[in-house]
């Protein structure tokens, strides 16, 4: 379960963690994710710090720091506010040599669709990043929901559809070979979760609550109503089959890996599968730019 308790919500909104959360929200290079009994703050796709409900202190991630034996450090809230820029600097130095671009672009997608100045016009919001629960098969890079921005769809928060996103950076991550989980492997894992009604419905219900909590904390913006307030309190994620969306970042179109992988996927899945395409350049998710699985397969085979 990703949702947090009412008591933890109160501490984040009004209590001991309020000043920290408010400062974090001012920095759009940081992303805050709910994790049940804790909250994790990410920078460039990596864990920067962890807030625990039952503790007065903050756990800072020192694993990016050179020659540091203690991978985590427990500090007070006031000190944490001063340390955030220093931890970001350590992460910048580390990631300049050991980049994980897939995770960085994951966080960019969250920012663009959840709290950038264009997030009100995109068709998808992201509810969770790096979802990995023991009750589900596999892992999801991003979990979101489809809430189209045009017309009557955006006025109706009931029964919006769950969306499972898989991010791949470059051509080498496409194929399912050995220990590399390519598109085929991910679809098999997604199918296990979606076909288990108890697990999937529990996932949808949990994400519904997470969305409301993140909106209440100001971690999701966009969709202002006529009263000028953000209207996520009525969001209900349906139990119908979700969309699965592959986001292929900087894939080399001269490569044949995508064509080979799609031709190796022969099962007809009972949920819609799409490939995201950008609106000109950018990371806003617009449904009318997506291409269906079968259409992508046909397009590649006709080239």
In short:
By secondary structure, this protein is α+β, with helices and mostly antiparallel strands. The chain has helices spanning 6-13, 18-25, 77-97, 101-114, 151-155, 183-195, 197-216, 257-263, 293-301; strands spanning 30-34, 38-43, 46-52, 58-61, 72-75, 124-131, 140-146, 161-169, 243-249, 273-275, 291-292.
> What is the assembly state of the chains in this entry?
single chain
SS class: alpha+beta
- List how many beta strands DSSP finds: 11
Distance between the termini: 44 Å
Rg calculated over all Cα atoms:
20 Å
Largest sheet strand order:
6-7-8-9-10-11
Shape: globular
Give the rounded overall mean pLDDT.
92
Fraction in helix? 25-40%
Task: Explain what you see.
- This protein has 303 residues and is an alpha+beta fold.
- It folds into two domains: 6-97; 101-301.
- 35% of the residues lie in helices and 20% in strands.
- It has a six-stranded mixed beta sheet with strand order 6-7-8-9-10-11, with helices on both faces. A five-stranded antiparallel beta sheet has the order 1-2-3-4-5, sandwiched between helices.
- Helix 8 crosses helix 9 (293-301).
- The termini are far apart.
Descriptors:
single chain, 6-stranded mixed sheet, 2 domains, alpha+beta, 303 residues, 11 strands
Write the layout of secondary structure elements.
Elements: H1 6-13, H2 18-25, E1 30-34, E2 38-43, E3 46-52, E4 58-61, E5 72-75, H3 77-97, H4 101-114, E6 124-131, E7 140-146, H5 151-155, E8 161-169, H6 183-195, H7 197-216, E9 243-249, H8 257-263, E10 273-275, E11 291-292, H9 293-301
Parallel strand pairs: 8-9, 9-10
Antiparallel strand pairs: 1-2, 2-3, 3-4, 4-5, 6-7, 7-8, 10-11
Helix pairs in contact: 8-9
